[in-house]
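Minutes, project check-in
Item: structure for the 421-residue chain
Input as provided by the requester:
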Amino acid sequence: MAELRRMAAWLALASVLCSAASPGFAKNHNAKPGREPQETAAPDVAAASPSESPGLAEARLIEVYQLIGQGETRQAFEKAEKLAKELPNFQLAQLVYGDLLVSRTRPVSAWGDVPPDMAKVAGSALKDLREESQKRVKALKERPAPGTLPTQFLQLSPTVRHAIAVDASRSRLYLFENTSAGLVLKADYYISVGKAGIAKVVEGDQRTPLGVYYITSNLDPKSLKDFYGSGALPISYPNVLDAKRGKTGSGIWLHGTPPYQFSRPPQATDGCVVLANPDLVQIIRTVAVRATPVVIAPQLQWVTPTQATATSRGFEEALLAWRNAKTGGNMSQVLGFYTADFNSNGKTLAQWTTVLRNEMEKTRGRTIQLKDVSFLHWVDNAETMVATFGELAEGTRVGTTKRQYWTRENGQWKIFYEGVL
């Protein structure tokens, strides 16, 4: 009987490892919107079953880990068996279930404790599943302190209802709600990034970009291959800063997984950010196209709202000074806020000066008001602020929505891009 159990356990592990190592992992999925031929339609967003609620599968898996750690192996086995049966495409859950089967015949020394010949056949699949397990556990053990937020989110307008931050080091996506009391962390999910890691530079480098982006559209899942799962949310890569630095590429999406795969290894995409379908469905139902910021960072730094306010103070002063100069109609003073290499969709600073002059003539000395101001902070080898706001003259109802990119130049904030949304 023990030998039969051992064989059954190894067969279970062999099945999950072979499926995890299948060629389907290597499919190219970064095609441009509208150019993918239609295959089997992805499931409708509204069709996610209760058993696949956002984050539930991971929570159940972590509960199994906890029970194992507490020595409650019988309960752990029962819960792992149920999870494996209900989500047969969740390879990591299958691996844990297989280990628990093996533990009934002999001690288990590590996750995916299989004979050497089976591990050899599995190739990198076993390593990937072990890394996925470590990422999930680490991210859930090292939670951000309550009430803190990523350093990038200095100020969000009340019209921006949600925000997303991705921590590549933890393979984690954090979803925030913008409430009257400030940003509140509502949920977080395991994600996969590029095969070659992060810091995308050129098209085809299989890296996930780093920076401040926005969701640009919501692609109909019925128009996509089933490889994309429950849908796709393209983001605005390359952004203005990326373009200034000469970065290339396109088609960076938040998207789901195909039916045969619940989740992907931590580094498994061609540059996109990939989530389990139930998690993606929740995000699709929550965020707003063209309004939801998406920050992708090597590692998120978390600060209190008070610390964020202190960081933003100097920039707020610069933004207000720019507004006052524009209200005053002093062109030379206004131009002092722009960098020499300013560029707005091909317009140089000299060409943009004409735009500014026309705008200032229209206001005729009336106070310029900035409404619904948001600004996000990005720091790498330079310091950048991405500001979005409505601009209108006092006493008028209609204005324009603008986005500016500011950088520190000799200790002063200056604008290197400005455009109307």
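Outcome recorded: The CA atoms of residues 330 and 414 lie 17 Å apart.
No further action items on this chain.
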